[in-house]
Every structure is written in C-alpha cells, then in structure tokens.
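Severity: low
Component: inverse-folding endpoint
Summary: output formatting inconsistent between runs
Steps to reproduce: submit the following structure tokens with default settings.
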C-alpha cells in the first residue's frame, strides 16, 4: 500500500508516518516543506493529481490553530474539498479525514464549521472514506499536552477556567492505531466516528493526571483569572504568542466529548484511559523541564522585543539629541554622519524588536549579531563602561543570553 499523508509534519502526521513505515507501508509525506510540497490554502485539483499518482490511500491530518484571514475556510474546507475531489479523479482507493469532535451540524465555532464542511463533502462524493473526530489528543510533542503539562508543572497547578470543562482525551498512539486499522480494513468504508478515549474528564482531572505523570506532588489548584485567560487568547490570535486563541477557548468552554463506541466498532480495539496511556511513556526530566519552559517562551520573546524597541525609540524620542551625538562622538562618529548614524541605528533596533515580536525566523539571531557589534565597538572605544556602576556593557551579556534563549526556543518550537 502507498499512503499519502497530508499535514505530515504535524503532531498526528509525524506519528502516523512512523507507524505506517514500521508496518512496511510506503509513505509519502506532503506538507509545506519537503520533497512533496503542498499548500491546501491554494492548491487546486490539478495541483494534486500528479502527487496522487500511484497512491492507494490518503490521510488528511492538516489543521490550523489560528483563523487568520479566513484560513480555516481556505485550508480545512475548500482546500480539503479540492484534495478529496482530486482523490476521486485519481482513483485513490480510500480517504481518511482527521476532523474534530464537535464538528457537528449546527456547530458554532468557525473551526468546527470548516471541518464539518469538508467532512460532509467527503461523505457525499467519495466511495470509500472514513472521518475520525478526535477530542483532546495526548502525547509527547503535542500542543495540548504541552498546555496541560505547563498547567500541571507550576508550583501550584493552575486551573483553566472553572476547572470543569469536559474533554475526552485520546492518546496519539491509539489514534494512529485506529487510522492504521482503517487503512487496512476491507472496504468500502463509510464511517464517521468520534476518536475519543473511554472517559470524559474535566480540565482539572486532566491537569492532575499530568502532574502525576510528571512525578510532582499533589497540590491545591490556583485559579487563573478570567482576564488573564482572555488576554492570553487574544495575544495568541493577534501576534501568535502562545497556543491559546479565542476560538480554542470557546471550544474548551463548550466541551469536547463524544461516544467511544463508534470508534471501538470501526477500529476494533478500546483506546486506553488517560492514566494508562501516559504510563506507556514515563515522563523524564526533559518533560518536566519542557513543561516549565514552554509557558516562558512567549514571555522571553516579549522581553527581548521590548529591549530592542526601547533601544531604538528612547534615543529617537526621549534622549536629548545633544546627549546622543556626544555618545557617538566618543566612539569617533562626528560631523555630518553622526545624525544619520543615530537614525539608522535606532531604526535597526526597532526593526529587530518588531521582527522578534512577529516571530520572524532568525530575528533573535540578527539581534545577537548587532548586539555583539555594538558591544565590541563600545568595549574598544569606551573600556571604562565595563566598570560603570550601572553596568551598561555587563548588562549586554544578559541581553545576549536572552537572545540566545529566544533563538534556541524559536528553532525548536517555530
């Protein structure tokens, strides 16, 4: 069998590709990067047809967190429809769509409506198809697991909302097992089932299980203020800080549960309860470290951005021009080039600050290079700054460390 996985670089796609190859299945990974590049937001049926040559089955794992510029509709709905139509034209034997629990008729969120539109199109036009609708997917490397692990790893576990929002977690290996079994099942298929674990759990219960998995002692919950949750969701949507968005918050409030019986009947096995699923892969020190660092990633990025923005805005708007020109003169920059140098250097700092905040890849590394250049010039021209009581050069070392941390974390999580 030759399987094309769309969204193969994502959490589920990566696990599925590994599992299928272990079973001896030929796998082609389609995504934004790699040899089989695709873009669901733009690709047409004609774009997909060459990629489907020799393919027996397609699994669509593509999904977005943020709805920027109508991305949900473009990727989840219209893009998936083009893929499914191409599969029909190319004679692909089976299509498996990874949708979402809650993608029902009358769904209220844009995320669920976009998924439902594609699900319905597949069911109406394909001859051999399956739609799996997961609730919370748990597993190392997943964003949902990272979120709840971070809540669990705080000195006092943090309560999300009232702590009573209901989810029905399924471990990623159980989800992938279900997909693999559907791909191998005799056809034709025509199933639409919730891919959920056996037990609906509150957000507090999920956080407690992950705290136990991380080998941390039980502790009373500390509630996150509602304004902090709303602000985090707003920042997550507007500037990509954190995984939360108003849409994901609305889905949590509405609950995300389903009937496990359909999954058991379609896939032929019972998914594990959360505690059992977590025990399959015991937590390491690295898991605890990640749980504590992950929520700091957007904070570090904001702090680094503020440093660079202040470095550019303060000389332009607040510092007396004479003081700035005197500083430039102390390093040998005088005359007609002094003012343009001040302006260019300030604008460069502002540009780096904006790029860091906007998560432009390499922005932190560019800032490191500029900071090293600034520090080298000042160290040679004004060595007395090393022993200045306010430590302007010594503090640069801390900024360099912050830049290195942000660069390392954006390389890993970007």
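Observed output (run 2 of 3):
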């Amino acid at each position: 069998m030759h399987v094309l996985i769309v969204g193969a670089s994502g959490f589920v796609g990566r696990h599925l590709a590994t599992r299928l190859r272990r079973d001896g299945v030929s796998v082609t990974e389609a995504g934004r990067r790699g040899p089989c590049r695709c873009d669901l937001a733009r690709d047409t049926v004609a774009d997909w047809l060459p990629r489907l040559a020799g393919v027996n089955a397609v699994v669509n794992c593509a999904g977005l967190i943020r709805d920027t510029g109508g991305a949900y509709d473009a990727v989840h709905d219209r893009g998936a429809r083009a893929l499914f139509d191409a599969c029909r034209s190319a004679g692909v034997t089976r299509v498996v769509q990874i949708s979402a629990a809650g993608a029902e008729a009358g769904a209220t969120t844009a995320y669920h409506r976009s998924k439902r539109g594609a699900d319905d199109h597949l069911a109406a036009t394909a001859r051999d198809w399956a739609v799996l609708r997961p609730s919370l997917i748990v597993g190392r490397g997943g964003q949902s697991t990272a979120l709840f692990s971070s809540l669990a790893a705080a000195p006092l576990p943090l309560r999300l909302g009232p702590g009573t929002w209901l989810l029905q977690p399924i471990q990623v290996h159980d989800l992938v097992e279900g997909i693999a079994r559907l791909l191998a099942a005799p056809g034709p298929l025509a199933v639409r089932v919730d891919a959920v674990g056996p037990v609906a759990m509150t957000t507090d219960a999920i956080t407690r299980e992950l705290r136990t998995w991380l080998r941390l002692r039980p502790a009373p919950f500390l509630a996150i203020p509602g304004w902090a949750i709303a602000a985090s969701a707003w920042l997550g949507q507007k500037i990509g800080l954190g995984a939360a968005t108003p849409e994901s918050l609305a889905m949590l409030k509405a609950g995300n549960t389903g009937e496990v019986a359909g999954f058991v009947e379609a896939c032929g096995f019972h998914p594990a309860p959360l505690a059992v699923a977590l025990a399959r892969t015991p937590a390491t020190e690295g898991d605890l470290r990640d749980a504590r660092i992950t929520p700091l990633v957007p904070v570090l990025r904001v702090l680094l951005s503020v440093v660079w923005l202040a470095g550019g805005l303060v000389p332009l708007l607040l510092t007396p021009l004479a003081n700035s020109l005197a500083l430039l003169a102390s390093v040998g920059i005088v005359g007609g080039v002094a003012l343009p140098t001040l302006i260019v250097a300030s604008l460069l700092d502002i540009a780096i600050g904006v790029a860091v905040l906007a998560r432009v890849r390499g922005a932190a590394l560019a800032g490191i290079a500029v900071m090293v250049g600034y520090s080298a010039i000042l160290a040679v021209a004004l060595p007395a700054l090393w022993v200045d009581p306010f430590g302007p050069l010594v503090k640069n070392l801390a900024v360099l460390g912050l830049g290195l941390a942000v660069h390392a974390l954006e390389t890993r999580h970007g």
